[in-house]
Amino acid sequence: MRETKMTIDKAYKVSPVDPRIFGSFIEHLGRAVYGGIYQPGHVSADGDGFRQDVLELVRELRVPVVRYPGGNYVSNFFWEDSVGPAQERKPRLDLAWRSLEPNTFGLGEFVKWAGKAGSDVMMAVNLGTRGTKDACNLLEYCNHPSGTKYSDLRRKHGAEDPYHIKLWCLGNEMDGEWQLGHKNMQEYGRLSEETAKAMKLMDPSIELVSCGSSFMGMPTFPQWEATTLECNYDYVDYISLHQYYGNEAQDSADFLALSDDMEKFIHTVVSVCDFVKAKKRGSRKINLSFDEWNVWYHSKDEEMDITQNHPWQIGPRLLEDHYNFEDALVVGLMLITLLKHADRVKIACLAQLVNVIAPIMTDAQGGAWKQTIFYPFLHASAYGRGTVIETIIDTPLHQTSGHGAVTDVVSVAVYQEEKEELTVFAVNRNLEEDQHMSIDLRSFEGYGILEKLELVSEDLKAENSLFEEKVAPIRDTNVRMDGQRAETVLKKASWNVIRFGKSE
Q: Which residue among 101, 109, 225, 292 is the active-site one?
């Protein structure tokens, strides 16, 4: 058995965790909305048509913020078509996903749904086919109290009080040629600068997210970040990062090493943000919004077939990845990476929430169920709020085909001082050997074991379904305290949550 040693000292604080790091994403894409969060006539639907079985699972995840309405969808989004009496709204062609958008569920419905889910709204504006004027009109509709054209239009539509949306995305993946209204660096830099300036004049209380590179492999990365931030630095608060991973090569060991790439991505963007700050002699720190992240690859052939050969459907089955056990391990690794960088990553959105590359799936006639990736996200959201503590870890290495030698164990520790609780999240990504792990809690006098949860499976390809849950957390009793040292075993290929608390 291999040996991993960890030392945790509460004096070495990295950063408080912004709860919005456990955000998610609902796009008008596939069955995320129609047949996902909204399905009038379903046995679980409430008076607004919202599926209550889905709402229960979203509330269980404690999602603090949900990004809406896209994604690629936003770059041809006409927000005016999504408001007012539903029976008067007209369908439109969604060019992003080549679907038919009936507009029976729109902005007002989403705000109401988010309220029931206990989530804030992270709203995106269309900077693809529209621009500054329309972004300001939308902001006025949402946030201005009354007495103006669009605030009074909202009141006419039944929302007397403003929506008070505080977080706004300035477009989506504007560097991508697939994006409607795709811009080059200079074009987006100037457009986002003028839009951000105008929006902050209207409502200085809002926070704005500048659109970063669509993923780390874009040919313009990281020059895109440098150029656009030089334009909008004075007005934006965050820059976005997007990254999806897959195991197309069916190389599981290397798949589990991809979180190392995510860490490099974060380091690079942080460096660019600080370079622009230095170049402009500025004082504002631009933080990161990792507002699209997940595993995504299982459904790409089906996506291509539907969008090319069967277009203009309402709520087609797009991007419905069925996740397996190793996908859950990668999601856990990505969550650990986000938490390790809580000093600069303040917002993150698991993309997406329901049916579309999602932890929650629904059956049209039946219930809702939890995919494998539901559980690491649940644990991180439940126990990852507090302050990240710098850990010293000594763990062996193993070889991978694409990443060379990587660490067996990847981990992070979060301290909830008010509750006197400490949680260690750890993934043993060695596929062959267990790890004996010792944790030195030298500064946590009087702390004992609360519980240890683990996600394990002999089958890396095991999946959950509506009818069978093959992958679910179990309590592991193989953990003990020896003075101020904890001893346990991290099984090969496992997600682990070890919780400590102050003894009575």
A: 292
